[in-house]
Amino acid sequence: MKKNTLITLLTVFTFFCANAQQEKGIFGINNWLHNWTDFQSNTATYNEPTEILTGHISKDIKLSKKYVYLLLGNVFVTDSVTISIEPGTVIIGDYATKGSLTISKGATIIANGTETDPIVFTSNRSRKRQGDWGGLIILGDAPTNKFGNGSLSNLYSNLSTKSYQYTNYGGENLESSSGVLRFVRIEYAGKRTSKDNYFNALTLAGVGSKTVIENIMVSYSESNSFEILGGKTNLYKLVSYKAGSADFKFNFGAQSHIQNSLAIRTPYTSNSNGPRCMQLFSYDKSSEVDFTKKGTSVIAENITLFNWSEDLEADLDKDLIAEALYVGNNTTIDMSKSVISGFNPAIILDDQIKINQESLEQIKFSEMYFNNCRGNIFLENNSNNADLENWYGNLSFFNVYSKGKDSETFINILNTKLPDFRLRINKIIATNDYEDDDNDD
User: Which of 103, 302, 414, 429 has its Cβ near the most Cβ atoms within 10 Å?
Assistant: First the structure.
């Protein structure tokens, strides 16, 4: 009886442990990266453009899969019109004119791809590189914490006077909709426009909560893969691959919920002087924001932040790897069930943040899996993290610390065509060490 009871308990324990293990980082019964993502986009070829998009689009338009479209210069969708894009459509950004597509405030994009027929934004160069073209910008009328509304006019080069009005974002409608982005790939974007300005691959500025943003892959962006400025966004199944700058950047009072998403960094496409997987700020300059408004607040669940390095220790020693997550002053984050693997360290808090209970209750990390990180959570410019280790190391947070090999931590990262970055489920095997008492009922 005692032996049967033990086996039953071990079986139940194994079931719950396996499910708890699986729930950390990106998850799913099947590998949801299959079919629509492309980790070898440098080998993809597309037909030459047959249609040109340029200037202002002021009437409803539908892009068809049977054509290949070229973004020539700064293209604005304006005047509350809708641009609809069929599944499988290819849109190419022009290198010479820094092609970009901006959905102005009040306009709508319906880019509703499918798992087997995603919509692709990419470069028109035969040998594609980071920052070949501009990017996709969506401007909404949800609030920010800025004084007045925001503008991205400084982002664009050669901007006409008429176009300035179409670069504004922000308003009062938290639940506004700018449309749908689903099963979309954005490749080789993030072009520099001036000494200090770059396009991001995907910019969401003042975008409201009814906008659908899910199953988006950004590859080889020179600047940030995803930049969220203000607004209220629900972000689901996002992938950032080998970005030159941040994978996910939140700023200006962004209220965001990001789930089941993945960032893959490598020392050879970025550097350690600032780029991180995730960055939270509430302002660039404190003078430009209204502190009576909400600062940036992010709920992050089941996120995997992974540094892909052939020789992690050597790259760490060479200072080629930065922290995975930076938490700025006047921001809040509630991150749970997530994996941070291979960084130096895992998390840094802005040095203006006071390390006390009140502050740390706004910066939550629970049920985390920290793997192969040279340190876990630090205050910026302070090598003594004993207080933070004691706080987040408390058993009530259920955080786990590991030094596991990548091949043993993730299901299959060696398949460069169809990798699987879900956390491997550790099997618990009952041993025979237990001596059964046959006389015990």
Answer: 103
Contact present, 304 and 421 (Cβ < 8 Å)? yes
Q: Is beta strand 377-379 parallel, antiparallel or unpaired with respect to 347-349?
A: parallel
Reply yes or no on whether the pLDDT at 102 is more than 70.
yes
C-alpha atoms less than 13 angstroms from C-alpha of 158 in its C-beta half-sphere: 11
Residue with the two structure tokens 């291979």: 342
Question: Given this model, what pLDDT does residue 139 score?
Answer: 98
When the pLDDT of each residue in the chain is averaged and rounded to a whole number, the result is 89
Secondary structure letter of residue 289 according to DSSP: B
User: Any idea what the Cα angle at residue 408 is, between residues 405 and 411, rounded to 5°?
Assistant: 130
Strands 212-219 and 179-187: parallel
DSSP class of residue 131 equals: T
- Residue 41's contacts (CB-CB under 8 Å, 6 or more residues apart) are 122, 128, 185, 187, 188, 219, 220
Structure tokens at 255: 């209220």
Whether residue 177 contacts residue 204, with contact meaning beta carbons closer than 8 Å, is answered with no
Token pair of 228 as six digits? 């969220």
Residue 195: band (very low, low, confident or very high) from pLDDT cuts 50, 70, 90: confident
User: What 3-state DSSP class applies to 371?
Assistant: strand
